[in-house]
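Protocol step 4 of 6: structure prediction from sequence.
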Amino acid sequence: MRSMILTIRDARPDELVEVGRVVSEAYVADGALSYDDPYYRTLERAPLEAFGSQFIIAELDGRLVGSVTWCPPGSSQREIALPDEGEFRQLAVLPDSRGFGIARQLVEACLGRAKDIGLSAVVISSAPWMTTAHALYEDLGFVALPERDWSPRPEVELTTFRHDLS
């Protein structure tokens, strides 16, 4: 069996279109949305329209297979973070690249960035169907905060998880 090379790094500007495609395709593969869902286009365009966010990508043998959007203070993508918290969004790994710990490394990269800039915590909103992600968050020390759960649209209920860094 040959070894695979996993690289976690910031996306270059010329990779942002591909980042949007990877995230939207991963959500479709999970049955979370369809190609005609308006949120598909939102996910696809997010890297091109966001400011102040950082797009951390995972490459497996040189192929972009995963991404997470890191939203430090000042990011246009922040939805739930308090001023002393970081937030990440749109954690996605293509189905054929799952099972290698890629999502864990992407989340750990966000936690590291939060520590580096002295934030007190990191938060994430997650849909009920994202049970694999929920298990990962809990394994990494995130705790559900029901008092901060919210709905961006009437048909979407999101759970808030928080990782205390202090």
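Step 5 (inspection) to follow. DSSP finds four helices and eight strands in the chain.
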